Amino acid sequence: MSELDTPTDVANDANDFRDQLPEDLNASEFVGVYKFPDNSRRRVPGYIYLGAGVVVVALVLAVGSDGPFINSGLLTGGVALALFGLLSLTSGWRMAIDEQEALEAAGVAVGFAVGHASAQQVWRGFRSRPTWRVLCYSNEDPPSRRGLVLVDAVNGKVVEHLTQENLEDWS
Question: By CB neighbour count within 10 A (0-12 exposed, 13-18 middle, 19+ buried), where does 33 fall?
Fold first, then answer.
């Protein structure tokens, strides 16, 4: 940094890296119907982890594990990396149900005419199975009933549902 450069000149350099969301995840600049990204994208890093783990294990088995740089710790790391890759591959569920279909399934499950509703994607279980969590209110003004429904995003089945009288004070 020369005497003429100020800290702001250096910070505004064109070569600075700025962390930002990928195009397909940045919903703030999107106009139109938003398509939620599919969980099957997890498979790409899974293949990378699995491949790197297999290469490390093969290297240790070929060279031996008694050297200063290639030892049993590297073998353990390679096995752990390969196992994590397998977990990523098996967690890369392909979503067959979008939020609109989840809202429809929730409307059927709660058993009343739905007015306002919202869907949120969550994951459940060890292998992170994608699930839509749908909160819905009845069609009256103010709503007299509300429901919470979990819809499996892979096969569209209703996992759980709860309905109750609306306990909120709308006055």
Answer: exposed
Cis amide linkage into residue 142, ω under 30° from 0 = yes
Burial of 70 (0-12, 13-18, 19+ CB in 10 A): middle
Residue ranges per structural domain of the chain: 39-90, 99-165
Q: pLDDT tens digit string along 128-156?
A: 888 999 999 888 888 888 899 999 999 98
Is 63:25 a contact under the CB 8 Å cutoff? Answer: no
Beta pairing class for 145-152 and 129-138: antiparallel
- In words, the CATH class of domain 99-165 is alpha beta
Give dist(CA 70, CA 74) in Å, integer: 6
> Cα–Cα distance between 11 and 99 in angstroms, integer?
41
Q: pTM for the full model?
A: 0.64
Q: Residue 153: beta bridge partners?
A: none
* 148: Cα separation from own chain's centroid: 21
